Amino acid sequence: MSTxxxxxxxxxxxxxxxxxxxxxxPLLGPxxxxxxxxxxxxxxxxxxxxxxxYATKRKMATKLTDAERQTELKALLDAGWKMVDGRDAxxxxxxxxxxxxxxxxxxxxxxxxxxxxxHPEWFNVYNKVEVTWSTHxxxxxxxxxxxxxxxxxxxxxxxx
Length: 160
Prior knowledge:
Elements: H1 3-20, H2 25-28, E1 39-42, E2 48-50, H3 66-78, E3 82-83, E4 90-95, H4 99-116, E5 121-125, E6 128-133, H5 143-157
Antiparallel strand pairs: 1-2, 3-4, 4-6, 5-6
Helix pairs in contact: 4-5
């Protein structure tokens, strides 16, 4: 492995490890090489992937209450979101001027979803994007879905 590849890999593993597990700092120490971390998989190109067990735990989502459905969910339904038949989920179709606007919007939503650790089910064809939100952890709609659906609408308004 070249020195440049090893340096890049060390930085990558260090950044990933620090991002996934800020609490590992005391265990690893500031001078511990990231390459000594246990790995889940070593790919054919020698990229080391840290174990997922280092990921920090987030609070478990809970389904929306009846009161939340009457207020927060109703506001989204009034804004064009629809309940999905046969499951506790909402969806909406967004139409853009062209493919680049649709793709750009999807990138913005994806970045926000990654930060929130909540990701959509979506389908894109040219200027049309169909988005579905539901929280699999709780088996239905949660506050995370309301937040992300609202974010979708807010980001879409910039493309009108």
